[in-house]
Design goal:
single chain, 272 residues, alpha+beta, eight-stranded mixed sheet, two-stranded antiparallel sheet, 8 helices
């Protein structure tokens, strides 16, 4: 066995493995990466309820059409010739888009660091780099991903001194922990304001899922300094716990992962 792209031959670390493999007759698996290349590619995303991809597509009568990544760049950097929205709507979309991109990438000392514990996360960071977005934040705390919570969060301090929580995870849990009643303005829809949750959920289920893309929802929350100090002491106590440490950390994370603003969703393609 040999993998040519990385010039890596197969290595046998135990002689008993061959004997055990000889007893296997069938393999059943639903784990991502087992039957795929595990090569993730950032394909499309939804920001403030607006879908973006490489190629623009027209929407239906009451549906937002897909905009291009070039238009997203224009929105991020205020390039009027590339932007679609206008006035206050554009300003709000830009604010959400910048928070969205801040969640995907981290830059230190002028160099991009791909700190990814999985190919999914590496693809998200690569997507942010593709759009030319970088930022400098101080990481204060990290609430790691686990199966019960189905999400992970990073708490950062921005250059202005404010504290933010960025959260990424399964659509069901992120939508549940996001603020109720958040709406967005649509210039081309019959109804001037529509539910951000319902628009994002429709895109996840009808567009991204039908294409077999791996999806995540992302959200953020502004944390007052006093609230973070109080929570940080609880988090530190949980981290120092010996018996039941994982449960203690989960409980601490749930205290801060609430009342989040839904930024949008990402869709990643895993090559077969």
């Amino acid at each position: 066995m040999y993998y040519a792209p990385s010039d890596t031959p197969a290595l046998c670390h135990t002689s008993s493995l061959v004997e055990e493999l000889g007893q296997i007759e069938f393999v059943f698996s639903d784990k991502t990466g087992t039957l795929t290349r595990n090569e993730m590619e950032f394909k499309t995303c939804s920001v403030a309820g607006i879908p973006y991809a490489d190629v623009a597509e027209e929407g239906g009568e009451d549906e937002e059409g897909t905009r291009t990544f070039e238009e997203l760049q224009g929105l991020l950097y205020g390039e009027a010739e590339k932007s679609v929205s206008t006035g206050a709507i554009e300003d709000r979309e830009r604010e959400v888009a910048r928070e969205f991109m801040a969640l995907l990438a981290e830059v230190r000392d002028g160099k991009t660091h791909y700190q990814a514990s999985s190919p999914d996360e590496a693809a998200l960071v690569a997507g942010a780099e593709m759009l030319g977005y970088q930022f400098h934040y101080e990481i204060l705390n990290v609430c790691e991903f686990n199966s019960p919570r189905k999400r992970m969060s990073t708490i950062v301090r921005t250059p202005s001194g404010s504290i933010k929580l960025f959260c990424k995870g399964a659509d069901t849990v992120i939508l549940e922990q996001s603020r109720q009643g958040t709406t967005i303005h649509r210039e081309d829809a019959h109804s001037p304001r529509v539910s951000l949750k319902s628009v994002t959920l429709t895109q996840l289920t009808q567009d991204y899922a039908t294409e077999g893309l791996r999806t995540f929802c992302i959200a953020y929350h502004d944390i007052p300094e006093a609230e973070h100090r109080q929570w940080a002491s609880i988090y530190e106590q949980a981290a120092a716990t010996i018996d039941g440490r994982a449960d203690a950390l989960d409980s601490a994370a749930k205290l801060i992962e609430k009342d989040m603003f839904l930024l949008g969703a990402t869709a990643i393609k895993n090559e077969l």
